[in-house]
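Protein in question passed on here:
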Amino acid sequence: MAAPCSFASLPGARPSLPGPEPDFRMPAEWEPHAATWLAWPHNRSDWPGKFPSIPWVYAEIVRQISAGERVHIVVNDRADEQKARAVLSRAHVSGGNVHFHHWRTDRGWTRDSGAIFVRGRHNVPVALDWKFNAWAKYGDWRHDDKLAARMARYLGIQCVQPVVPELPVIGRRPKAPSSKAKQRLVLEGGSIEVNGRGAMLTTAECLLSQEVQARNPGVGREPLEAAFRRYLGVKKVIWLERGIAGDDTHGHIDDIARFVAPDTVVAAVEDDANDPNYEPLRQNLETLRHTAGHDGRSLRVIELPMPAPVLFRGQRLPASYANFYLANAAVLVPTFDDPNDRVALNVLAGLFPARRVVGIASRDLIWGLGAIHCMTQQQPL
């Protein structure tokens, strides 16, 4: 059994960017998974008026993922497990690859609240327990903030809580580790996208904001980049500017741009010049086209269309095909009863010929302001 989560004051740990090799490497999502983690939906306030349909969407997602890997499902208690099993059974989900855990959660967005799995030295698996504060927006997050440590404890692997690194002063020797209290870093999995080779995508809107939904007040670009190098193995951070309309996370990257290969990115684009997403996505596309990847070469950038605006009760929802999930045996893509559904599926099918590309009807799911990538978290082999 692994020790409880601890601050990452590891022997020989280095605040580096640039500098020596990092302590960990985050594998790309397309690398083989040991499992996928998700939390069964239970917070009705996330889908007011539409909650009864949501477990059926989850069941179809579990059915597709479990065909190629283990699925860990977090539920509040035994009663919730029985309800989930009943839905899965009716949806013809085989139970052999599905495992339940009785841990309380506030919401079901495991991408953001769960552990981010990395590889340490000698390829040892490590769970990163970033601080979670409900996107610096909601008050109910304390159960979710315990999820990463529980996942690590169950797996029996080391659990590390990333902290703000102490940057060395140029021209001086690196500081010895400070004895004063460390500031834990707030980070959600949906705010970062890596290629497993040292490059990362994120947005300034989400991680550098000091006025709206500020995750880490007073922490600027340099210490964040140093933390990404140390904990995720990132040597090149590609900063895009803004996310899409309707996104209550304030700019998560997994709605706008995703790595699909070490040198290839799909980028969401909006053709309607009158749409509020048009200009931000155009600017992000231009940044990607003029930015080198981890190896210093230009990125291959492939456009992924946006669906027409999805509205419910007068609210614009963050519908985007970029919120797909790469499972071992399939690529699960949110669809929205839109003509561009077919275009997006064909784009991704061309990029992942060895995987089944499956559309998941998500007009109800997106009412919760998240889709398939938001609800899943991969555990690499």
